[in-house]
Amino acid sequence: MSKLANEDKFLDLSDYGRPFAKFFANRLKNTKITPIHVTLLFGFSGLIALFCIFQHHYLLAGFFIILKAIIDAVDGELARVKNTPSYVGRYLDSVFDIVLNFLFFMAIFYVSNASIWMTISAFFCIQLQGTLYNYYYVILRNKSAGGDTTSKIFEDKSPVALPRETQKSVDIMFRIYTIVYGVFDEIIHALDSDAYKVNSFPNWFMTFVSIYGLGFQLLIMALMLALNLIDSIIPFFVIYTFFLFVMIAIRKHYFKS
């Protein structure tokens, strides 16, 4: 099942790993490997990237960051081809993402000349960027005919557990998810509280917004590591937040309910 109806599909610059994800998901379809196993694997790839940063092997670090981004797409694709959607898996995936993002920035802080406050600011900024992308994307998916509605526009209550998962495990993962993402969701919703009323977004606009997708963010980070621009990564992601306000302004001015 696709996340979007055909007319709502757009060039997602952050989703370059999708062809690889579909290939590997189809190979794993009839195995005992579950989407959660794949989520754990992308976490492991992220940890290898962290080790490489600490060892100043920046080219290798960039490789494993890209590998992490590609594997990150496999778990969701595997859940779709096996028809085994899971709230636990979705929340675990998101929690792993934010933890690894924080660790990436802490590792870059350790090996660069950045201050701790600039590093924390960069982490905060990259999460705001990703939250805006997810906000608009989830709105589009929920409004798209036959779109994927596993993700909700407003994560304000724990969802009812799906088959093969317990309500207790869903409730626990939902609580963790809201703790680590809640503040970013609240800020983005406050900045663009009426976006959910829009029935659709133009494809070109969603392509623009996709520069804030995690995959594209990690691609930028990996390229900057490979080019040995270690001291520029943290200030770059702070400045990169400028486009957030541009995107919101475009949405409010041109795409209304």
Question: Please, could you describe this protein's structure?
Answer:
This protein is mainly alpha-helical and 257 residues long. It contains ten helices and no strands. The longest helix has 28 residues. It is globular.
CATH classification, class level: Mainly Alpha
Summed over residues and divided by their number, the pLDDT gives a mean of 91
How many separate domains?
Answer: 1
CATH homologous superfamily label: CDP-alcohol phosphotransferase transmembrane (TM) domain
Backbone CA Rg:
18 Å
User: Shape, please?
Assistant: globular
Which CATH-level-2 architecture? Up-down Bundle
The total of helices stands at 10
Give the uncertain stretches in residue-range form: none
How do the SSEs run, as a string of H and E?
HHHHHHHHHH
Distance between the termini: 28 Å
Look up the CATH topology.
Answer: Four Helix Bundle (Hemerythrin (Met), subunit A)
Most strands sheet: none
Helix percent band: 55-70%
Instruction: Report the count of strand segments.
Output: 0
